[in-house]
What we know:
Elements: E1 17-21, H1 24-34, E2 38-42, H2 57-64, E3 68-71, H3 78-84, E4 92-95, H4 133-150, H5 155-179, E5 187-190, H6 196-202, E6 205-208, H7 220-233, E7 237-241, H8 247-256, E8 259-263, H9 271-275, H10 280-294
Parallel strand pairs: 1-2, 1-3, 3-4, 5-6, 5-7, 7-8
Helix pairs in contact: 1-4, 1-5, 4-5, 5-10
Amino acid sequence: APAAAASPSPDPAADRLTVAVAFYPIEEAARAIAGDRIEIAGLTPVGGSPHDLEVTPAMVDELAGADLVLYLGGGFQSAIADVVASLPDGVEAIDLLAGQKLLPVDDQLAGTDGEVDGEVLEGGFDPHVWLDPVRFGQMVGTIEAALSTADPANAATYAEGSAAYQARLGILHDRLAASLADCASRTIVTSHRAFGYFAERYGLEQLPIAGVSPDQEPDPRSLEAVAQAARDRGVRTIFYESVVPRAFADTVAREIGAVVDALEPVESLTQEQLDLGLSYLALMDQNRAALVRGLPCFGD
């Protein structure tokens, strides 16, 4: 008898959800929850800043063609929010800041001149919720619920992926809490006003420095204000954002006899970081180690 004709193999991508994600940490969470059940459309380019994102016509098409859009509202990426407002009815858009109790941005260090780096939401609120692993875990739960609503047939898969990733976030939180429980100083001096939620979670104080940026040397008044804060609070380390030049931090540190170290706001990953297999979880643990060195802490 002639051999039966082989039936065509089903296309595994045919029934995948297409999920547009605003920036890196959301992408990592979605992949951890759903694995290969979804196709990811990342809106912020690798190594780019989500705050400076400009929407292109191709990006508008990606958003309109997605099943689900995961973004942060409140003016975090106003260009994306504008497109989201006019998406077709079949596209579900989830604002991951909805339901979060937002914090106001920390005041810049008294006596410093200029604008402090760091972005502000409408109403003067801080967008950097994801840098608190507990709050980020809540966002992961919201992503899981959105995926399960859009694709109920795979809800069990999403629940399993979400639980596994949230367990890893729980381990990270426990390690941070233990490491930062006993420190010589509880003040983090940084140029990027991104660590307010992190500081609140772990009982730290964030002091953002103004007049200190990659292309602006700190003026004498600002240097004196930082020096006074260092003396008052036992500050030994000036933290800078790892993806920008560190010359400004070196200047401040030299003036006050401190050292410098990097804190990662995990807003995007560079290609080099991705090639090294780094992740939100890995970078947050690097932040933990930097703080243990810099404050210093004795709980490790």
